[in-house]
# Entry
Amino acid sequence: MAKVSIYIRTYKRDIAWLDLCLQSIHQNLQGWDEVVVGVPEGQIDHLRYLDTERRIVCPYFRTDYVGQQVAKLQAHRYVRGEFVLFVDSDVIFLPGAKVGDFFVNGLPLVEKRRYAALRNDGMAATKWQQAVENLYGENPEWEFMQGHGTRLYRVSTLRDFSNMFPTIETYARHVPKRLFSEFNLLGYYAWKYEHDRYAFRNIDAIPARIPASKQFWTVDGLTPATLAELATLGFRPRWPSTLSPLDRARRWLSQSTRHTKQWLNSFRKPTP
# Structure
């Protein structure tokens, strides 16, 4: 049986979510061999409550939105499995979850949609088409970010992608975040160069995989309503907060600013 590594790239503001995610992995997800958790440089102390998981340090990016994507593309440097299951730290696995659900006939499942279909639906994901075209010099037909915070790839695919684009980290530091999409870049590589090694599913024709997991929206933190829902699933926070008072204040300011913008936007009249 091929080994499967779980790779979670998190950061200091999501450590409380990481605690709950790991609880769900150990209690409910079957079929994995190791868990590797990465954080940006300067944040390793926030992983001090980890027990059996391996911890790694990832390159620091001023814009961590891009930094966490690059860290995923570099996961082959750290994991030991043949396959790597990427898991966002706000994902909670439910009873009965199995790594095997991410395979079809022994091949990793990658779900996709045509950009034309996304455009007809008015979905913002069409912006990633340009990100792929800029790197490969080809206009992609498919979008590969379909999923629920969990995606499975061969580690060899990551290694081969890195060999084709050895300066991807430098490249990522010099493009706007709207023009970088790790799983679209990786999915296009697998589609173009390793098509027979994956099971690609067009979810406009075949229903998307229904995962035995739930992904939460982390930007507002663990609200009382979210904690109550998690409690019904059997999960409660175990770790004290690792954030400094300054980081807590910054998080509060960021959330308050976003809520204010949303409130102001609610008064705008829709464009006819």
In short: The chain is about 35% helix and 20% strand. The domain at 4-244 is CATH 3.90.550.10 (Spore Coat Polysaccharide Biosynthesis Protein SpsA; Chain A).
